[in-house]
Amino acid sequence: MYKFLGIGLLCLLNLMIIPVATPVPGVESDSIKMYGIATIVLKDSTGNILLENVIHNQVVDVGTTFMLDQTFGDGNVAVADASQADTMCVTDALAPNGSTDDAETAALFNTENGLVGNNCIGAIVFTTAATTGNSGTTTFSAGTHFPAGTVVGGIGICGDNGVGSPFNDCSVAAGDAPLLSVVDTTNVTVNAGESVDITYTLTLD
Amino acid sequence: MNKKQEKIFVLVAAAVVIVVFIFVPWSNSYFGLLLDTFTGPNWDELNPHDVVKNVIPITLLEKTDNNCKMSAENLDNVIEHQYFIRGKEFAQTVKFDAKNSTVVLPCEIIDGEKSRLHVWYIKEEAPRHGGTYKYFVTPWNDTIP
Hints:
The complex is a heterodimer.
Chain A: H1 2-17, E1 34-43, E2 49-56, E3 58-59, H2 61-71, E4 87-91, H3 106-112, E5 120-121, E6 127-128, E7 132-134, E8 138-141, E9 150-152, E10 154-158, E11 181-183, E12 188-190, E13 195-204
Antiparallel strand pairs in A: 1-2, 1-13, 3-11, 4-5, 4-10, 6-7, 7-13, 8-13, 9-12, 10-11
Chain B: H1 3-23, H2 30-39, E1 51-64, E2 67-71, H3 75-79, H4 87-93, E3 102-106, E4 114-122, E5 133-139
Antiparallel strand pairs in B: 1-2, 1-4, 2-3, 4-5
């Protein structure tokens, strides 16, 4: 009787010390050290909140490479501050490819987007702290940045082209920041008089 | 092994289990995984990268016994998102009527005519609890997403 109890305890001990899986380099772990989060708030014409969505992003490969190039002395010339990632563009793609595809680029993001004219706001002054960079709240309004009734399906963080805001599409110019990340937000239909407030935070910890 | 040796064996094994339970991080073990299935995720300790949070306003339309029918505009977009793999299950749980944008919730969780319905879920690729969701209602004046 005692013997079986003891064997049962040893089995329990095994269950407690054997890890579920050995972490594999490059595979997501419990302690992700870099991630971006976007908050999107849909408001009606009187400022009432119709939907809030807090959702993670996908930092695409060209964005990661850009950050590494900017950080390390690798022979590449760092871009000037005005050409850093300081732009937020909304897209009407309901499930933007870049949210799941690391190979997404600004050109692909632009092609997938059907909004024309003013879907981007640039020259955003990010606030950096010990471990985060935060865009602050950027407001996109129906009638100004896209037609009323547009369904906004996602966000791209990228570079501008030195033009005044608002403007069309992420910059694809050499020397400008590439597409950094893409967020597939909960879809929001922005009707006349309505707006969406978007905040983006990238955390490196 | 005589009776006395068996008792010592059990006591030592029990002592080791207790020591491991207290001092060794076992949350990533099979035991931790087993326990997770009963306890569910600790939402406060999840990596923000793994959790999607949505909030919509809901307004009381009709009260029948303990069932409160609430308007739930924009909930369809929350449910249909590609990351919300158990969205349909959630829709059935809250009796979501997509045509009229309404849900039916227990009245005891509703606070006032207008409230905020929070729908949180863990993305499928998360190391733990992928696909798990929860929903709760807070007063309208609570502005924390």
